[in-house]
Amino acid sequence: MASSALASNFPVFIKKDGDLSAFPSLAPSFHVQKTKKRNSREIVSVMAPQQSPRSPSTTGSVKTAMTMTEKILARASEKPQLSPGDNVWVNVDILMTHDVCGPGSFAIFKKEFGEKAKVWDRDKIIVIPDHYIFTNDERANRNVDTLREYCIEQNIKYFYDIKDLGNFKANPDYKGVCHVALAQEGHCRPGEVLLGTDSHTCTAGAFGQFATGIGITDAGFVLGTGKSLLKVPPTLRFVMDGEMPNYLLAKDLILQIIGEISVSGATYKSMEFVGSTVESLTMEERMTLCNMVIEAGGKNGVIPPDSTTHKYLEDKTSLPYEPVYSDAQARFLSEYRFDVSNLEPLVAKPHSPDKRALARECKDVKIDRVYIGSCTGGKTEDFLSAAKVFHASGKKVKVPTFLVPATHKVWMDIYSLPVPGCGGKTCSQIFEEAGCDTPASPSCSACMGGPRDTYARMNEPQVCVSTTNRNFPGRMGHKEGQVYLASPYTAAASALRGYVSDPREFLQ
User: Fold this and answer.
1) Which of 81, 200, 257, 495 has the most crowded CB, counting CB atoms within 10 A?
2) DSSP, residue by residue, 34-53
3) How many CB atoms lie within 10 A of CB 222?
4) Is 189 helix (H, G, I), strand (E, B) or coil?
5) Contact 38/286 with Cβ under 8 angstroms?
6) Alpha helices in 137-191 (DSSP H)
């Protein structure tokens, strides 16, 4: 069974200290021995013994240590101190919306603030059409037209419009998938608060900022005031150490975590990722890690900014920013520690992101198609990874393989960047040699199903290996379709064999 293999090969420890983590002199030291797990959901847990109450300070106020998320929200709410459970009004640095939720957000804004009301700050509102773009569906097209009307009326500075649906390159402002475009266009900065009308807004936490999804009612209020009422979440800390094997990607790491804690294990909690493995990840891989915290129920995901973060931002933003970091004695609800060197390539079986399994143990699952794309798995490095597997095999794919770049920039990279170790060939050349579909116009495409004429939508009850983020019934189209979530490595290997496959066959 996959679960037994995971339990023995990838030990996980949780330390629950309650509030004692803030007072090291009171916190006992622990040494947790690895134990045999009777099932993959069982987690080793140690509770600190009860201590006598600590006398209140008599020397004035004592500042309590805070986590990254608590510090960001404290700054944004102009409070010196915050704790989990506090409800505060925060000043929003960036509000993002797209074609699915934008029209409703603006409609609520006008209803509540008046037909002639102006948004609180036109420079802090980012509007990115990306979901249902390349379709003949009249209602989907109407959403983009409605967005355009609002943005012209409000003189929104950052509206990435598209008018010519027949040739995305004819639209100089069009970008593609909002979460990737936000980063590429310099709208993500450490220490800030970024809210978006999309659950995967948490992707931006990779930059060391508080980023989370909100509904259109909240967005309508932010449009008018620049403020939002938020409850401070407690923080789960994930410490990942060990050298990353060359057959793993960040997608494997987040699938492991979700499989361990379940799709509700981080409900309304912040997920902070640290450790030597995290520090070794590129920005795009960190974005993958934070992107799927919502699949665990997380309020937000966050990674401490470092030199990798600052280098990425050098040519993308000229605005000043101030990073924050968790205090050494910050309180964490739980801490999970992983030795990444022991992890194997993973998939999430239908129909839930927490149905974790080893890719090699699903080798008898015959598939009908492979999909490489989305905010999770459609970035430049995702395509470089897939191309690496195709080139190593020297073979053609055995099932239709759909490629959907997240943004216009990613599309250009596919055609221009040489794949390392592949003799100067670009992704596009390797994909063509492998028999993949021609890279499509950048958008969310089939990740969320969409209108029936959406490119690569599952209109039949097929089995698909996908680099996307959700595999619920009907997510990619047909309600009886089966989606296996996987990394670009595993997706490419599966395309070559026609079965769910472990990429080590081609990478070692």
Assistant:
1) 495
2) P---SSTT--EEEEPPP-PP
3) 25
4) coil
5) no
6) 138-154, 178-184
Intra-chain end-to-end CA distance of the chain, in Å:
24
Lowest mean pLDDT among 6-15, 415-424, 434-443: 6-15
Q: Which helix (H) or strand (E) holds 300?
A: strand 300-302
Residue 269 has pLDDT above 80, yes or no: yes
Where is pLDDT greater, at 123 or 16? 123
Calpha distance 26→156 (Å, rounded):
53
Chain centroid to CA 210: 13
Helix (H) or strand (E) holding 159: strand 158-159
User: What pLDDT was estimated at residue 353?
Assistant: 98
Task: Enumerate the H helices of 314-435 as residue ranges.
Answer: 374-377, 380-393, 408-416, 427-434
- Across residues 71-90, what is the average pLDDT? 98
Instruction: Judge contact between 207 and 309, C-beta under 8 A.
Output: yes
Percent of the chain at pLDDT exceeding 90: 87
Helix (H, G, I), strand (E, B) or coil at 239: strand
- Encoded tokens for 508: 């070692």
Q: What is residue 456's DSSP assignment? A: T
Burial 160-179 (b: 16+ CB within 10 A, else e): bbbeebeebeebeebbbbbb
